[in-house]
Amino acid sequence: MENRKKRAALHNLGCKVNAYETEAMKQLLEEHGYEIVSFEEEADVYLINTCSVTNMADRKSRQMLHRARKKNPHAVIVAAGCYVQSAGEEIVRSKDADLVIGNNQKARLPELLEPFFEEGSDREKTGGSHPADSFVIDIAHTSEYEEMALKKTAEHTRAFIKIQDGCNQFCSYCIIPYTRGRIRSRRPADVLSEVRRLSEAGYREVVLTGIHLSSYGKDLEEKISLLEIIRMVHQIPGIQRIRLGSLEPRIITEEFVKELSSMEKVCPHFHLSLQSGCDATLSRMNRHYTTEEYYDKCKLLRKYYEHPAITTDVIVGFPKETEEEFKDTLLFLRKARFYEMHIFKYSKRHGTKAASMSGQVPEETKTLRSHLALKLEAKLSEEFRYYYMGKTAEILLEEPHAFGKDVYITGFTREYVKAAVKLTKENKEKMLPGRLIKVKMTGVLGDGLLSAEWTP
């Protein structure tokens, strides 16, 4: 062990916030002398940043812990994140992990690993031979934002930046307030410092993300708003695009959208959480708006932007959802004309209000409704993308891909429509990742991918 670097492999499950924290932990380990390797390789440490948003996420978290143990029975298996926060005691009892780290404790990772590699320590031998070391705090009673920062990201041109954690909404189906705690905002100075550092490293696009992004700043003494932090990021040289993570519909006001539309770096790409297109279902979900109010938000965005990309989340098969209520949802989805929709089958989460509701929908019914919603999603997404056929748009180049015998470089428009430009002898030197170019959309290369021609 002393003759080589300790090797660590990390695997992320779940949302963009989790992905950000996994990248931050990876960089912390690198700074402490670890060599980062693929999860498929043999390592001294396997870290799984878990998710608990659905039953399937719980299952995947357990499966990855078992998989890590099989890869190297003597490695230190680390379970971190939301599944840990909700089922930490169960993980300790099962000996599926050697080190259990809850949310708001991830920045301590290098320090918590030290006992496992100290010569003579009884923690040297792992393999489930000891009870796990557990570091899980009462997340509901902390107001501290856990500062973690990135110098680089896994993506080469786009950087996700976590600026907020926690949620106070307590939707009746959602476990997140219990696994992430109450709202906590990152200090503006730390946000801006990270954006500047990433800009200097060559990143041209940043995505501001959080567990409940719309509440950013409400807990800070300076009472800064999400709009204000966006305005500050907009002033940083080098950053050419700003995207926003998931937003609550109520933040979409005339003032908010008008101000955003005046900032040319802000992309017209808005993820507005919906969950259901039926008012009765929304009420049972404890969502604080009606479908009419939600649709007014969509109209506001379309008032200030020519063709904004509006994406959303939809849960099908929520307790007591009737066939009529589901049909109402499908009708509303067509009316709202979403670009993309993430469709989820309702998943019962222990401890939430919806878990004890009567009228639980059979799994086969949820599966059928999910299939119908996904079919509609594909149609609406295709209609949105085809709007650009023959039109000129700006794409941020990312990476080359082979399609048949030809090589293309792909990139995304400001609305997050993916397009690809064929690489030729004439343009190869200019088609570089991180460059913004104008293209004309000419056809379809594959599922969800448009072909485009460079228009210098």
Automatic annotation (TrEMBL):
Q: Which reaction does it catalyse?
A: N(6)-L-threonylcarbamoyladenosine(37) in tRNA + (sulfur carrier)-SH + AH2 + 2 S-adenosyl-L-methionine = 2-methylsulfanyl-N(6)-L-threonylcarbamoyladenosine(37) in tRNA + (sulfur carrier)-H + 5'-deoxyadenosine + L-methionine + A + S-adenosyl-L-homocysteine + 2 H(+)
**Do you know which PROSITE patterns this protein is assigned to?**
MTTASE_N, MTTASE_RADICAL, RADICAL_SAM
One GO cellular component term noted in the UniProt record for this chain: cytosol
Uppermost EC category:
transferase
Q: Which SMART domains match?
A: Elp3
Q: Supply the alphabetized keyword list.
A: 4Fe-4S, Cytoplasm, Iron, Iron-sulfur, Metal-binding, S-adenosyl-L-methionine, Transferase, tRNA processing
Quote the Gene3D superfamilies the UniProt record gives: Methylthiotransferase, N-terminal domain, tm_1862 like domain
- Cofactor(s) for this protein? [4Fe-4S] cluster
Domain MTTase N-terminal stretches: 6-118
Q: What is its EC number?
A: 2.8.4.5
Superkingdom, taxonomy of origin: Bacteria
Q: Where is the Radical SAM core domain?
A: 153-383
User: What is the originating organism of this protein?
Assistant: Qiania dongpingensis
Q: Which Pfam families match?
A: Radical_SAM, UPF0004
Q: What does the record give under GO molecular function?
A: 4 iron, 4 sulfur cluster binding; metal ion binding; tRNA (N(6)-L-threonylcarbamoyladenosine(37)-C(2))-methylthiotransferase activity; tRNA-2-methylthio-N(6)-dimethylallyladenosine(37) synthase activity
Q: Which NCBIfam families match?
A: MiaB-like-C, MiaB/RimO family radical SAM methylthiotransferase
Name the record gives this protein: Threonylcarbamoyladenosine tRNA methylthiotransferase MtaB
Role summary: Catalyzes the methylthiolation of N6-threonylcarbamoyladenosine (t(6)A), leading to the formation of 2-methylthio-N6-threonylcarbamoyladenosine (ms(2)t(6)A) at position 37 in tRNAs that read codons beginning with adenine.
UniProt similarity note = Belongs to the methylthiotransferase family. MtaB subfamily.
